[in-house]
Design brief:
121 residues; mainly alpha; three-stranded antiparallel beta sheet; 6 helices; 3 strands; 67% helix; elongated
């Protein structure tokens, strides 16, 4: 399933929602004004957009998420892999390691993750 990738403004509002949900839309407007310097109309425009894309919902002036921050990040990562590496995690890792060297601690952490994954198979 393709996930909508939020703009920076949408992501800024999303972070506030994830930190404070459930939150009334009026309170969200106040927080967006304080933290982002936004007007009421800007907040509602951005909120409408992220609700249209099934990341959040605004029902009876109560704003809640339809997916957690972690779920959104995971699905966005899966989309990236699919679009750029035909869904191949090993292809992504190989390309990544061509330009970045891992230190021993990072390598050990990856090895442990792979071993744990193998045990679950």
């Amino acid at each position: 399933m393709i996930i909508y990738v939020m703009t920076q403004a949408e992501n800024d509002l999303a972070q506030i929602i994830w930190e404070t949900e459930p939150i009334r839309s009026g309170e969200l407007v106040k927080l967006a004004a304080e933290r982002l310097g936004w007007k009421k109309s800007t907040t509602y425009t951005v909120l409408r957009k992220i609700c249209e894309n099934d990341i959040f919902q605004n029902q009876d002036t109560m704003v809640t998420s339809r997916m957690t921050k972690e779920e959104y990040a995971r699905r966005k990562g899966e989309n990236y892999l699919e679009e750029n590496y035909h869904g191949s995690l090993s292809g992504f890792v190989a390309a990544f390691l061509e330009h970045k060297k891992l230190n021993r601690k990072e390598l050990e952490k990856l090895e442990k993750m792979i071993e744990n994954y193998k045990e679950e198979l």
